[in-house]
Design brief:
two-stranded antiparallel sheet, nine-stranded antiparallel sheet, disordered N terminus, Immunoglobulin-like, globular, 175 residues, alpha+beta
């Protein structure tokens, strides 16, 4: 009588599995893990694209404005934001605030809001590109922006939660 070879791979009862039975259990696990890594629809590490809300506020990171430097020959920190919606928005009042990070507290530097009545405050995308603060020195400072808005969509008024810029940016602009 021929004895089947045994290997050290066993299950919870402590019984030894034969060599050919081991492959029967490993192959499905290996193919499942490879399919999750290779599949374009599903990734083992999560989705590469994040889902965006139908109506949202997007705010850029603060930056030194090249156009103000070119036209006014002055350094200024600027932050832009936009209200984006898949539905037509009217009477959008988009407010953007610029803050400078301080030692014990953050300092408010500027605020601007779009006026709700002009035609530029209607549409699928409404921009606010007016929030800026002129630099007094070239001392390194950190800045961030916060944006929020109110808008009328299909006759209902909606108010968004404040949204902070993704990064607090260190710029050569200070007091």
């Amino acid at each position: 009588m021929k004895k089947t070879p045994e290997v050290g791979f066993g299950h919870s009862l402590g019984m030894k599995l034969q060599k050919f039975q081991k492959a029967k259990y490993i192959l499905p696990v290996l193919s499942l893990s490879l399919s999750t890594l290779i599949s374009p629809t599903t990734s083992a590490f999560g989705s590469t694209k994040e889902k965006k809300a139908a109506c949202r506020i997007e705010i850029d990171n603060p930056h030194i404005s090249k156009s103000i430097l070119r036209t006014e020959d002055r350094l200024a920190v600027k932050v832009n934001a936009r209200s984006i919606c898949n539905f037509f928005q009217t009477r959008v009042e988009l407010t953007v605030k610029l803050y400078q990070v301080g030692l014990f507290r953050d300092y408010f530097r500027d605020e601007s809001s779009t006026r709700p009545n002009p035609i530029s405050s209607n549409g699928f995308t409404v921009h606010n590109r007016n929030t800026k603060w002129y630099c007094i020195s070239k001392k390194n400072s950190a800045f961030y922006g916060i944006a929020y808005s109110t808008a009328v969509i299909n006759g209902q008024t909606f108010v968004t939660e404040p949204v902070r810029s993704r990064k607090t940016v260190r710029l050569a602009c200070g007091i």
